[in-house]
Amino acid sequence: MSRVVVIIEDDSKIRDVLATYLHDAGYATLEFGDGLGAIDAIREKEPAAIILDLMLPGLGGVHVCERLRKFCAAPILMLTARIDEVDRLRGLDSGADDYVCKPFSAREVVARIAALIRRAEGRVTRPGTAGGPAHGIDDAGMRIAWGGEWLPLSPTEFQLLAMLMRQPGRVFTRGQMLDAMSQEYRDVSDRAIDSHIKNIRRKIVAIAPDARVLVSVYGIGYRFER
After folding, report:
1. Which of 174, 12, 203, 7 is nearest to 100 (CA)?
2. For 170-195, how does the pLDDT look when each residue is reduced to its tens digit (9 = 90+)?
3. Considering the entire predicted model, what is its pTM?
4. What phi, psi does 183 have (nearest 5°)?
5. pLDDT tens-digit profile of 134-171?
6. How far is the C-alpha of 194 from the C-alpha of 222, rounded, in Å?
7. Cβ(76)–Cβ(39) under 8 Å?
8. Which end of the chain is least crowded, N or C, by CB within 10 Å?
9. Distance separating the N- and C-terminal Cα atoms of the chain
C-alpha cells in the first residue's frame, strides 16, 4: 500500500500541486483546508508524514502541531509564508521536524518528505537485533541509534546530536553548534539551537522516557552526558 501523506493547507492550488507531485512520487494523500478536520482524521489513522501550513484559518498551524504532538509521532513538515526567524522557531518549538518557506519547489517538498519518512520508519527497526548498533552514530546514513531504535532526526538534529555525543561532557556554546551545522540547514541565530535541542529531547524520550542526556548549561549552551 502507498504511504499516506496528509496535506493541511487552506490554499487549494497549493494543495493540488503538492498532491500531484506526491502522487507522482508514489504517495497517497489526504487533503484538508483546515486543522480541525485533519486532527480528527489523523487521530483515526496515523499517516506516514504531514505537511502543515503555518497560516491556517481558525486554528493556526502552530496550535494544530501542538495538538498533533499529543498523540501523533508522524514527521511534520511546516510550510510558512513568513521569513522571520521567530516564525520558523515557533514551528520547531511546536514539534515540527522541518520547515520550508513559501514560495517553494514542490520537488524539494517531496524530497524532504521522503527523507523524513525514511528516518521515521527507521525508528521502528531494531538495530540491536538486526545486526546494527544498539546505541551509536551512522554517519553514512545520517542517523543515530538509541536504545536499539533509529531516532527520526532531521539533518540538522542529526548534526547537533552527533557532535554532542562524540565529546560527552564537553560544553558546546550555541555559537559553536551553529558553526558545526551545514550552511544548507543553518538558522539565523543561536535561538534556533534551543528549538532543535527541544525536538531532539522529545524524540529521545519517546524511546527512553527516563533519558536526560542533553544538559543545558545556563547562559552558555549544552553538553551530552552518558
Report:
1. 7
2. 999 988 888 877 655 555 567 788 88
3. 0.67
4. -60, -30
5. 578 888 778 888 877 888 888 888 889 999 998 888 99
6. 9
7. no
8. N
9. 40
Residue 146 bridge partners (DSSP): 149
Q: Which amino acid is at 174?
A: R
* Alpha carbon distance 115, 97 (integer Å): 11
Alpha helices per DSSP H over the chain: 12-24, 35-44, 61-68, 85-93, 106-123, 155-166, 174-180, 191-207
Which domains does the chain carry?
1-123 (3.40.50.2300), 126-226 (1.10.10.10)
CB 65 within 8 A of CB 50: no
Lookup: cell for 207: 524511546
Question: Cα angle at 188 between 202 and 48, to 5 degrees?
Answer: 40
Residues 146-151: contacts with CB under 8 Å, at least 24 apart: 146/204, 146/207, 146/208, 146/211, 147/207, 147/208, 149/123, 149/124, 149/125, 149/207, 150/119, 150/122, 150/123, 150/125, 151/119, 151/123, 151/200, 151/203, 151/204, 151/207
